[in-house]
Amino acid sequence: MRWAAGLSFFLKMSGTALAFGVQLLLARLMTVENYGVYALAITWANALVVLAGFGMPMAAIRFVAEHQARVNHSLMRGFVRFGYLATMVSAILVAIGLAAVVLLFDQHLSAQTVAAFVIAALIIPANALYIFTGSILQALRRIMQTEGPQQVLRPLFIVTGVGIVILVWGTDAVDAVSAMWVTFAASILVLLVMWALLRGAIPEPMNEAVPSYEPRNWLAMGASFLVLLGSAFLNERTDVLMIGLLLGSGDAGVYSVASRNAQLLAFGLASANALLGPLTARFNAQENIGELQRVVTQGARIACLISFPAGIVLILFGDWILGLFGEAFRPGYGALVCLCAAQLTVAALGSVGGTLALTGRSRIVAQALLGGVAVNIALNLLLIPMFGQMGAALATMFSVIGTNGFLVVVAWRRLGVNTTIFRIS
Question: Across 131-145, 209-223, 313-327, which has the greatest mean pLDDT?
């Protein structure tokens, strides 16, 4: 487990550094308003990718690991086939829906915004498919194949694409639309790489097994995970979407840089989750609560060990770091501090949502997250007109910490597992 945690940490760190570089590069090359359009289009695309996945990525982590533990290769093969079909159909429908809505209201949007969101619609199926593929690889405990393409290759592809745009058309050609095209190309390349990696990772007995299917069970669990993942994403990104709607793309661009920098702290918990997901499903299937508690506790400690030093750096030097993106981004420092505090608290509380969901308690997690989204939206509507970007950050901090704190209590009472770094008696 230690070597896997170390590998995951290295890949997450590399991906974090590269993501920061991509963000810095695009922010420096674009105007604030232009970057705001790009940030809003990417945020909406990422939100709809969660819907397009229909919960299949998280279902893959549970069912592939569970069927492998029970040596049921027929169900493993059946789930992979069914998951790809469900993801493809759902993603295409969501993409068509987004494009239709944007084109329906194109008279109220700038031409650049319309083009950026249409490309965002194209990105949705590619992202949904490579995320599902990565979840299968994660369930098979292929850390390098899971993290490498998404964390390292994708930002490298984006940087390469931006470089090509600059060489061929010049720096003035780097705008929201060209950046979206580059992001789309990067997503396609990552998908192709991950498909090739999955072909080599599938166990031979699974390739030879006759597939069997449990579509009702998989769809029901996927729907539960969809609500869970969608609510969790909205809890984290409602602020950017609400600022875009209430204050405009300029403020959204400034806030998005602060938000994305704070989200770099999430790589600690993400590194732990790369290990926790399959092990949680496996120990739950074996009804081994003792091992489950050990793994969850170790995951929370890993998350804090990684996130807290980085969080201190961001809080102390955040104003200077935001200045690297341009002087226009410095006003986001107050929001950055609030969002860092939220991320560090979440790391200390551990992987509570994933632990509950992968042990069959996804309904209560979904209900809590939906409640958190409702509170988040209400607080954003109240605080953004009063305090601007700082109001959005406060709304996100209160809703995210409150939701995760509630789930910690649920995990302790219903599962008998303490997901935090703190001792609960």
Answer: 313-327
Element (H, E) at 358: helix 352-358
d(CA 205, CA 325): 51
Query: Which are the contacts of 336, defined by CB distance < 8 A and separation ≥ 6?
Result: 258, 261, 262, 314, 315, 318, 322, 393
DSSP letters of 89-156?
HHHHHHHHHHHHHHHHTGGGS-HHHHHHHHHHHHHHHHHHHHHHHHHHHHHTT-HHHHHIIIIIIHHH
Contact at 8 Å (CB) between 63 and 213?
Answer: no
3-state secondary structure 201-247: HCCHHHHHCCCCCCHHHHHHHHHHHHHHHHHHHHHHHHHHHHHHHHC
Dist CA 7 CA 147 (whole Å) = 9
Arithmetic mean of pLDDT over the chain = 85
Task: Give the angle 29-30-34 at the CA atoms, nearest 5°.
Answer: 165
What phi-psi label fits residue 84: left (phi over 0), alpha (psi between -120 and 50 degrees) or beta?
alpha
pLDDT at position 82 over 80: yes
pLDDT tens column, 298-339? 888 888 888 899 999 999 999 999 999 888 899 999 999 999
Please state the φ and ψ torsions of residue 211, each to the nearest 5 degrees. -65, 140
Q: Give the tens place of pLDDT for each residue, 58-73.
A: 888 878 877 777 767 7
| CB contact burial 31-49 (16+ within 10 A = b; e otherwise) | bbbbbbbbbbbbbbbbbbb
Rounded to two decimals, what is the model's pTM? Answer: 0.77
Mean pLDDT across the stretch 376-385? 94
Token code pair at residue 379: 């607080």
Distance (Å, whole) CA 151 – CA 406 = 31
Vertex 32, ends 27 and 33: CA angle to 5°? 130
pLDDT at residue 225 is higher than 80:
no
Cα-Cα-Cα-Cα dihedral sign, residues 288, 58, 130, 401: negative
CA–CA separation, 67 and 251 (whole Å)? 47
Q: Which of 98, 48, 26 is nearest to 253 (CA)?
A: 26
Whose tokens are 């999430």? That residue is 266
In 3D, which of 226, 221, 216, 224 has the Cα closest to residue 54?
A: 226
Q: Could you tell me the pLDDT band of residue 177, with boundaries at 50, 70 and 90?
A: very high
- Nearest residue to 64 (alpha-carbon basis) of 131, 138, 5: 138
